Amino acid sequence: MSSIKKIFPFIRPYKKYVYLNIFFNVFYALFSAVSFVALIPMLSVLFKEDNKITTKPVFEGIEHFGDYVENIMGYYITHFNETEGPQYTLLVMITLIITLFLLKNLCNYWAMYFITFLRNGVLRDIRNAMYKKSVELPISYFSEKRKGDVISRMTSDVLEIQHSFLSVLELIVREPLTILFTIGAMFFISVKLTLFVFIFIPISGFIISKVGKSLKKKSDKAAIEQGYFLSIIEETLSGLKVIKGFNSEKVFQGKFTNSTDRFFHLNNKILNRQNLSSPLSEFLGILIIAVLLVYGGSMVLVEGTLSGAKFIGYMGLAYNILTPAKAISKASYGVKKGEAAAERILEILEQENPIQSKKDAVHKSTFESGITLENINFRYEEENVLKNFSLTVPKGKTVALVGQSGSGKSTIANLLTRFYDVNEGKIIIDNVDIKDMDLHSLRGLMGLVTQDSILFNDTIKANIALGKLDASDEEIIEALKIANAYEFVKDLPDGIYANVGDSGNKLSGGQKQRLSIARAVLKNPPIMILDEATSALDTESERLVQQALENMMQNRTSVVIAHRLSTIQKADMIVVMQKGEIVEQGTHDELLAKSGTYSKLVTMQSFE
């Protein structure tokens, strides 16, 4: 239950609905018991068992409350029988019973009505919290997790929590109160018979609890398996071209089928174990009633210590315990499943985020002098990707990073934006360590254009306006013109309101990249980071994109990570990297004159 308890803070905003639910559940439980007790005088009239009481009884204290209630009912039955006749008395009793059952069901409806707001509110708030946490967590977290598993936690596991909360509230309020009031009424009718029932209730409870012992473990396995096949779906839809191109449909179908088969078998075990709870608790309840029929029957027929009407009413009350007992049994299984789901949800919600702003973080809205990287060491796992790396990028200058794949170029972009934190050393902007800066303001100073043109399934305007949500159509068009993108956007039927499709798949690679540049242009940041922005383009697209980049980089501080050296010849400084270290630096002409590593890279690319 510890995991479920940690979800309780999500209930606080809806506590008024909890109180209203409890309020109506109390009355539901009360009317549930009283409605069966009210059957006794009606049966007495039918079987003519009522003892005539002609004098109105006087209340003699709480210890005689049971006798008083029985006598006062006997008095009014006698009165109505003598003045109005037995048929009229029966109609009155039936009306009373109908009213009690109506009140019971109205209270049931209102209890469920108010808990609906709680359930759906908790569902919404947990999902919102999980999404917020997922967005805040560092990129490194998702490189280790399957996306499908995160989606599964945010959908199925949260739904499981929603159902578990309903079960918990029934478990701790409604059903126990129904049982409590019913047992109270049973004591009122016969103490001896009720004490006899108590011998069997703990036995049946023990058997039911034994059945549900392994449910939590199996629920956890099923949730993990669901996350796995959701990941396969996500990977399949993302890489459909590759799958079809390599005729790998059967390979992925096999992986998916194997996963859904495992999920099928796990779910069968869980649901069959859960389904056993209801018939098991009902059978045990009927077993208790059978024993009552034997023992209670002897009290009516042999001993004469209990009237027939009271015994039938008592049996109705005994059966009334079965429904809440079944519900508690089901709810206890629901709680076990909910606890497994809560653990998976809390794993994300309680995940520590190492990359976040300090409490007294520096807020910066301007860029004044430059960027300095001091003796940086960084590793993704065990081996250093950057080794004692130092570099200065003065304001207004363009610095290009070149080198073979795996030399650490893109890592610099990840560190400047604080997608990752350095292990040793410092990154300083205007004499302020970026770890001391507010994360939002740090990224506000930067524009990022990556090799993968990431566009969202929305309009061109919505994609470009990410960094400036209040941008006008004129500002969007101006940014498109600077990025050499307006030439194709203006020819689209809906112009800037055209939808780009999932991941921008309605556009070519060059068109997507120019929209990414337009997005950075509109944001208008003082620092621009270009991570191999032209490496995946054809020659014509590269020329247009390169021209767009040059337009954008005017009067800005730029860090350009380049694979194609033709794109960075105009850079103020070119830094040549090898295995996480700087081996050369200078202008294009200076590096060519050295005839070193850079010169070899240029020569190799000129033959490509």
TrEMBL record:
Known Pfam families for this protein?
Answer: ABC_membrane, ABC_tran
Q: Quote the subcellular location field of this record.
A: Cell membrane
| Organism of derivation | Flavobacterium buctense
Q: How does it sit in the membrane?
A: Multi-pass membrane protein
Q: Per its UniProt record, what PANTHER family does this chain match?
A: ATP-BINDING CASSETTE SUB-FAMILY B MEMBER 10, MITOCHONDRIAL (PTHR43394:SF1), ATP-DEPENDENT PERMEASE MDL1, MITOCHONDRIAL (PTHR43394)
The membrane-spanning stretches of this chain are 22-47, 88-111, 179-208, 283-302
User: PROSITE patterns from the entry?
Assistant: ABC_TM1F, ABC_TRANSPORTER_1, ABC_TRANSPORTER_2
ABC transmembrane type-1 domain span: 72-337
Single GO MF annotation: ATP binding
- Tree of life domain: Bacteria
Tell me where in this chain the ABC transporter domain is found.
371-604
Q: Which UniProt keywords apply?
A: ATP-binding, Membrane, Nucleotide-binding, Transmembrane, Transmembrane helix
Q: What is this protein called?
A: ABC transporter ATP-binding protein
The record's InterPro entries line, in alphabetical order, gives: AAA+_ATPase, ABC1_TM_dom, ABC1_TM_sf, ABC_transporter-like_ATP-bd, ABC_transporter-like_CS, P-loop_NTPase, Type_1_exporter
